[in-house]
Write a structure and sequence with these properties.
The structure holds two protein chains of two kinds. The relative contact order of chain A is 0.24. Chain A is of the alpha+beta class. Chain A has a single domain (4-183), classed as Alpha-Beta Plaits (2-Layer Sandwich), CATH 3.30.70.20. Chain A is built from six helices and ten strands, in the order βαββαββαββααβαββ. In chain A, the strands form four sheets. Chain A has a four-stranded mixed β-sheet with strand order 8-1-10-9. A two-stranded antiparallel ribbon of chain A has the order 2-3. Chain A starts with a strand and ends with a strand. Chain B is an alpha/beta fold. Chain B has three domains: 63-128 and 354-452 and 464-526, 3-Layer(aba) Sandwich (Rossmann fold), CATH 3.40.50; 135-331, Dimethylsulfoxide Reductase, domain 2 (3-Layer(aba) Sandwich); 570-710, Barwin-like endoglucanases (Beta Barrel), CATH 2.40.40.20. In chain B, strand 21 (633-637) and strand 22 form a beta hairpin. The termini of chain B are far apart. Classes of the chains: A alpha+beta, B alpha/beta. Chains A and B meet through helix 1, strand 2, strand 3 and helix 5 of A and strand 3, helix 2, helix 6 and helix 7 of B.
């Protein structure tokens, strides 16, 4: 299977949110003039998990975009056939022209990553910067990552790179197009 | 003049001023990223700068006050009228021979910032909040090494070798950067085998990435490192060869006399770090090829001069000066002077913190700029008459902000304001604007020229970056540099004989064989790419009076402060029963602190990409004792202020401390007023009202604050 993927090195992610804003700027998601906090669409978000009690603490940070599922529930749910998994890249794409605004995809997405443009009545989400990657560029989040925590490529190659660096894949977090890795404790 | 494409310029969402590329399409900035010719990174604040640029709240025309100060009522006026108002006020004060009663609160973008030039020509002073953050470290550089007084002087993380130690002491370089590349550089160093040690009362992302987190009592870093130095010296683990060669004769003996009783055990009782950990770190330092300490900023303590001196002692006895992985010693970029250069007035003689009845108290105060923290006191004493503020927000950023607001509103017996005139130039509505007589719309970094070569931050002076206009300015916004140059041409034509800002920068760039055009053709940068190492070996001396490293600060011998005190700041040692908690106020990467830019930047106040509130953080151990639960609304009270907010229970703070995030509290602007927040400076004392407690060596004023918390 062809699957372009993003690998998140949790040894390096500091949860800085730079990718969130760079992604919005690139995909023109922000109305700089009028958007207010809490109403700006986003294709990627930062999550974290702290464990332990003072002073024995640890905390991980990671980013969470669309996972471009193998059998995408959003695509299955869409009755207008607007969502497909691209055979060449493994990227799940929404065709805005076909989208009827039924929001079925949003209901079915297990990761809550699909946005809705109420004004123009269509669903939209991370397309792994499809227009860039098909011309040999990385997704914007990978290019601008403040700490170089993200890397991009074919899933099997990313896995080999992780192994070469001595990183463990966090299987319970990883899914189709996102691989989370970390040094062994 | 404007073109589409990826244009090299400079970010100005914070003072780090990173080199960036702006993607302009059809005359609009679409996206931005780090300039690969520089260090190639740009942070979330910088990325959100486009939202400030195109915000509908941009100030677009000059305005003058129509109500009382503080009401925030204005009417639109022309630029001609605004210029006339400023010139009339400035001339009147100058003709009275009181030019020194003019201060300009700003962040100079270079040592020859045109605004600073005007202030020097006028005979006034610039004032900044900079001494709040770094005065101790700057003075340590001056006193001990004779080094150019750089601002923050971070370690060169990309130079840290395998097994080198990177020590962050109360410092959050992931959240308050010297350059957007710093987090990457630290993590890269870790990957090649360097160790990251974080000494901090709160557990932030730096601690999460650290090899060793050492929770410490706030203000305990001077005692902690004195304990480390004691162990190194008394166990002969210090760099004797370096000290024998470079330290002033007699200083090592005096240091040993001073430090012999600063044992790890004794220091442990002050900083609340086990003596075994102090010794463990000392042993690690002795074995490491290099060690650096990044400190001062995110958490600021009131014993900064003591800490600055301990910091310099540590660097000297371990030989970590101007070496890879140690402490860099920056120089000033050799720009050409634009002659004739105006001579500034004598700060020591005429600075406003020296003109009041208590001026003799500050005879030792030796800092290079006027600190803003005495502004309220100076206004009350009649020593400050005209106040200009650009790119700063003293109504929020000033410690004791309430006292500042009161002072700028005070009237004399005739009903005239004690502060005769107050001008603010800004790009977005600011809290400070409410008290201004005149508000001028400034341009963002995407609309203006600026030459940046101050050795702030991470370039160590070996570089210059050009900020250039990439899009047309909005409305009637004018870059304040040009406004001030125009005033200079009217009032002091001999010092402003150049055509405009671009010609001014062109002349300066001649000093390094560059010009504006050459920079524009070459990625917007002049950067030979090295800060240089061991420069003192080339010079065969340090630039101190003795030519050697001077550990004994004998200029303070008459007040018996030539050596650092290990004690906590004075404010932490009093009123412990009434105010049982120590306030830890810190910063995050999502905000630009008190600057007006992020208060009204929708992306930086958005919960997904920024931060929308600053809760009161408390350890559950403390909360349980007080019967306080997550989400409770509580009061937080200090000796001088009181705020109310929501509680957040967190294991990530040392018991006995209360944490709050700096950079909130604005009441002006649609975005800012959406937030649930308060300003931490409401809790911090105004320096002018606590003069008896000042560090008379010129260290930080009152950032050390005790608080009590109750429902």
């Amino acid at each position: 299977m062809k699957q372009l993927s993003i690998m998140v090195d949790m040894d390096r992610c500091i949860g800085c949110k730079t990718c969130v804003v760079a992604c919005r700027n690139h995909h023109n998601l922000v109305n700089h003039r009028s958007h207010m906090p809490g109403e700006i669409p986003f294709y990627i978000k930062v999550e974290s998990q702290a464990e332990g009690t003072f002073p024995h603490l640890k905390e991980d940070f990671w980013v969470s975009p669309c996972k471009h599922c193998k059998t995408a529930p959003c695509a299955t749910a869409c009755e207008s056939g607007a969502i497909r998994k691209d055979a060449q890249t493994g990227i799940v794409l929404i065709d805005q022209d076909k989208c009827t605004g039924a929001k079925k995809c949003i209901e079915k997405c297990p990761y809550d990553v699909i946005q809705f443009n109420a004004e123009k009545n269509y669903a939209h989400k991370c397309n792994m910067c499809y227009d860039r990657v098909i011309h040999g560029q990385e997704p914007v989040c990978v290019e601008i990552c403040l700490t170089d925590a993200l890397s991009f490529g074919e899933k099997e190659i990313l896995k080999m790179q992780a192994q070469a660096k001595g990183k463990e894949i966090i299987k319970k977090m990883s899914s189709q197009s996102i691989i989370y890795v970390k040094s062994a404790p | 003049m404007y073109e589409d494409g990826w244009i090299p310029t400079v970010c100005y969402q914070c003072k780090a001023e990173c080199s960036i590329l702006a993607h302009v399409q059809n005359g609009i900035v679409q996206e931005v990223k780090g300039n690969p010719r520089a260090r190639g990174k740009m942070c979330v604040k910088g990325m959100a700068g486009i939202t400030s640029l195109y915000s509908k709240e941009r100030l677009t025309h000059p305005m003058k006050r129509v109500g009382e100060r503080g009401e925030g009522k204005f009417e639109q006026i022309s630029w001609d009228e605004a210029m006339e108002i400023m010139e009339t006020k400035l001339r009147a004060l100058h003709e009275k021979g009181e030019g020194h009663k003019f201060t300009y609160s700003m962040f100079p973008h270079s040592a020859s910032d045109p605004k600073w030039r005007f202030v020097n020509a006028y005979g006034g002073f610039i004032s900044t909040g900079l001494p709040h953050c770094d005065s101790g470290k700057i003075m340590a550089h001056l006193h001990t090494f004779g080094c150019f007084p750089n601002h923050h002087i971070a370690p060169i993380y990309y130079s840290v070798p395998k097994d080198g130690l990177m020590i962050l002491s109360g410092r959050h370089p992931f959240g308050c950067m010297d350059d957007a590349c710093v987090a990457k550089d630290i993590l890269d160093a870790k990957e090649r085998g360097a160790k990251l040690i974080v000494i901090d009362p709160i557990f932030r992302p730096e601690a999460a990435k650290a090899d060793w987190w050492i929770p410490i009592k706030p203000g305990g870093d001077a005692s902690f490192f004195l304990g480390v130095c004691n162990y190194l010296l008394l166990n002969n683990l210090y760099n004797k060869e370096f000290c024998d060669k470079w330290v002033r004769e007699g200083d090592m003996e005096k240091l040993l006399d001073f430090i012999v009783d600063k044992t790890p055990e004794k220091m442990s009782s002050i900083c609340e770090v086990p003596a075994a950990d102090i010794i463990k770190l000392a042993k690690m330092v002795a074995e490491a090829p290099s060690a650096c300490i990044d400190a001062f900023k995110s958490i600021m303590y009131g014993n900064a001069m003591d800490w600055g001196q301990v910091w310099s002692i540590f660097l000297v006895i371990t030989g970590n000066l101007d070496n890879p992985g140690g402490q860099p010693m920056p120089e000033l970029t050799p720009m050409a002077p634009v002659n004739p250069v105006p001579t500034p007035p004598d700060l020591k003689e005429l600075g406003y913190h020296r003109t009041g009845p208590n001026r003799e108290k500050f005879d030792h105060y030796n800092f290079i700029l006027e600190p803003t923290w005495y502004a309220a006191q100076a206004i009350k004493e009649g020593n400050l008459k005209i106040f200009f503020a650009t790119e700063c927000n003293p109504a929020l950023s000033e410690m004791g902000a309430a006292a500042w607001r009161e002072a700028v509103s005070m009237k004399d017996d005739d009903g005239n304001y004690m502060l005769d005139f107050f001008m603010v130039s800004e790009i977005l509505p600011s809290e400070t604007m409410k008290w201004a007589d005149l508000v001028l719309p400034d341009q963002t970094n995407y609309e203006r020229w600026e030459l940046l070569y101050m050795p702030w931050w991470y370039n160590y002076s070996h570089g210059a970056a050009l900020c250039r206009p990439v899009v047309k300015p909005v409305g009637e916004a004018r870059h304040t540099n040009n406004v001030i140059i125009e005033l200079g041409k009217h009032m002091f034509p001999e010092f402003f004989a150049f055509k405009d800002d671009v010609e001014y920068y062109d002349i300066e760039l001649g000093g390094v064989g560059m010009s504006i055009d050459k920079l524009m053709e070459n990625g917007g940068m002049w950067s030979p790419g090295t800060a240089g190492f061991y420069k003192y070996k080339d010079k065969k001396k340090f630039d101190t009076p003795s030519g050697k490293i001077e550990l004994d600060w004998n200029m303070y011998a008459d007040i018996n402060q030539q050596w650092p005190s290990p004690e906590l700041p004075l404010e932490y040692r009093k009123d412990e029963e009434k105010f049982p908690f120590i306030l830890v106020n810190f910063r995050t990467i999502f905000l630009n602190n008190t600057g007006a830019w992020s208060h009204n930047n929708a992306q930086l106040r958005d919960p997904v990409s920024g931060l929308d509130s600053n809760p009161i953080m408390i350890n559950p151990v403390d909360a349980n004792k007080l019967g306080i639960s997550e989400g409770d609304t509580v009061f937080l009270e200090s000796a001088t202020g009181k705020v109310s907010s929501i509680v957040q229970l967190t294991e990530k703070i040392k018991p006995g401390c209360i944490g709050i995030i700096h950079g909130f509290g604005q009441t002006v602007g649609q975005v800012a007023t959406l937030c649930s927040s308060f300003n931490d400076n409401e809790l911090i004392a105004d320096a002018g009202s606590h003069l008896d407690e000042q560090d008379l060596r010129g260290g930080e004023a009152h950032v050390s604050t005790r608080v009590t918390i109750y429902k």
